[in-house]
TrEMBL record:
Gene3D superfamilies in alphabetical order: P-loop containing nucleotide triphosphate hydrolases
Similarity field: Belongs to the ABC transporter superfamily.
Keyword Cell membrane found: no
Domain ABC transporter intervals: 10-232
Protein name as annotated: ABC transporter ATP-binding protein
Coiled-coil regions listed: none
Alphabetical UniProt keywords: ATP-binding, Nucleotide-binding, Transport
Gene Ontology MF terms in the entry: ATP binding; ATP hydrolysis activity
């Protein structure tokens, strides 16, 4: 995807959030360009959900700043779609009820888009959400978020509880929706295979800090796997090094999974010192 404008989708500077003595996010500074599908990766407790909640304006930072679509979080609610991990829907309401509710709550609601997505997904408008499968509920939640026609779509591990087939369907719908809307999407996930499949921008969190961020292609080009890292090499972890390496070292390309794991290891090791 390409940039759809000059205003960054999300910018943070020194962003920190504490819960008592526990630091959930520390000195986080990053810039997410518009028009990207961003994979937000990290272990449990890395600060992923905290970062997304700060971006949505659900919680306030302890220090530092965050700007969403050029403004303070919470002031662009109509332009931000959010799908939480439990993909919340109302069990007693039908699919059609959810669409009517979305139309009443969102000024830019696209009824035609919502109806088209529901039909494409094979959802019965009369069916109560409580009787849908987990994958269908996730698809309904995504449809509701996307029918707002947001500029930024934030998804906090929405496929964590889904089986492989439902997960594949959700990701396909996500890409179709983002492409049609021309939106930026931030997808938090533990599943590196999903990130590799749909994301073109990467943010790696570990120990509450940003360990790596950038476009996937550029990051892969900037790293190599070297059987025996030469002296002076910028070793990330193990055989993964950053930057150019001398000829004859047996350097080869690094896979996305290797890259992410190397930075997760480095971030975890630094956090225990």
């Amino acid at each position: 995807m390409v940039d759809s404008g000059t205003t960054a989708a999300l910018v943070t500077e020194g962003l920190t959030r504490r819960y008592g003595r526990r630091v959930a996010l520390a000195d986080c500074s990053l810039r997410i360009p518009p028009g990207r599908v961003v994979g937000l990766v990290g272990p449990n407790g890395a600060g992923k959900s905290t970062l997304l909640q700060l971006a949505c304006g659900l919680i306030a930072p302890t220090s530092g700043s965050v700007r969403v679509l050029g403004a303070r979080p919470g002031t662009r609610l109509a332009r931000v779609g959010f799908v939480a991990q439990d993909t919340p829907v109302y069990a007693t309401l039908s699919v059609a009820d959810h669409l009517r509710l979305g139309a009443r709550l969102n000024p830019a609601w696209d009824a035609a888009f919502a109806a088209r997505r529901v039909a494409a997904l094979g959802l019965d408008p009369r069916q109560r959400a409580g009787r849908l499968s987990g994958g269908q509920r996730a698809q309904l939640a995504l449809t509701l978020a996307a029918a707002k026609r947001p500029e930024l779509l934030i998804l906090d591990e929405p496929v964590a509880a889904l089986d492989p087939l439902a997960r594949e369907g959700f990701l396909r719908t996500l890409i179709e929706s983002v492409t049609e809307l021309g939106a930026t999407a931030v997808l938090s996930s533990h599943l590196l295979s999903d990130v590799e499949r749909v994301c073109d921008h990467l943010v790696v969190l570990a120990g509450g800090r940003v360990q790596l961020a950038g476009d996937v292609t550029a990051l892969l080009d900037a790293h190599h796997r070297v059987p025996s890292p030469p002296a002076g090499a910028d070793v990330v972890h193990g055989a993964v090094v950053r930057g150019p390496v001398p000829a004859g070292t047996g350097a080869g390309p690094v896979r996305l999974e290797e890259l992410v794991l190397a930075y997760l290891h480095r971030g975890t090791e630094r956090g225990t010192r």
